[in-house]
Design goal:
This protein has about 140 residues and is mainly beta. A four-stranded antiparallel beta sheet has the order 1-2-3-4, with no helix packed on it. Strands 5-6-7-8 form a four-stranded antiparallel beta sheet, with no helix packed on it. β10 and β11 form a beta hairpin.
Length: about 140
């Protein structure tokens, strides 16, 4: 979870209105609110990495779903407006599950699969993963 102005924000990998995961807020006094329920396509499913707060928005990844069913990078406001920033495909990586970091106005993260197959030591997989950068 992450704290922003006294409120905690986090994700659930499943559950919500579509059983594809949620982004939620909870106050320190225990008031819980589901801000967003993922649908799978096109917005992603299975957000299991910590959220990152940058410039008044929260950023995160989904392990699956999105336009290519390979995961997404998303932003969400603290009031619950979600926006898909990127949908992964096999060549640029898939299954992002680590957290994001902000370096100079760009989000950096990793994927578990996808990318170049040349040096991959996992036959039958969809590549060995990528490191990606996404400008804000």
């Amino acid at each position: 979870m992450i704290e922003v102005k006294g409120t905690l924000y986090g994700t659930t990998v499943s559950g919500g209105a579509n059983n594809k995961g949620t982004v939620f807020s909870i106050t320190t006094s225990g008031a819980l609110q589901v801000l967003y329920s993922f649908k799978g396509r096109p917005d992603g499913e299975g957000p299991d990495a910590p959220l990152l707060a940058v410039g008044g928005k929260l950023y995160g990844t989904t392990f699956g779903g999105g336009a290519n069913k390979k995961g997404t990078v998303f932003s969400i406001t603290t009031s619950g407006t979600e926006n898909v920033l990127f949908s992964f495909g096999a060549d640029d990586g898939n299954d992002p599950s680590g957290g994001l970091i902000d370096v100079g106005g760009a989000l950096y993260g990793t994927t578990q699969q996808g990318g170049d197959h040349t040096d991959c030591q996992h036959p039958g997989r969809d590549g060995c993963g990528t490191v990606f950068a996404l400008s804000l």
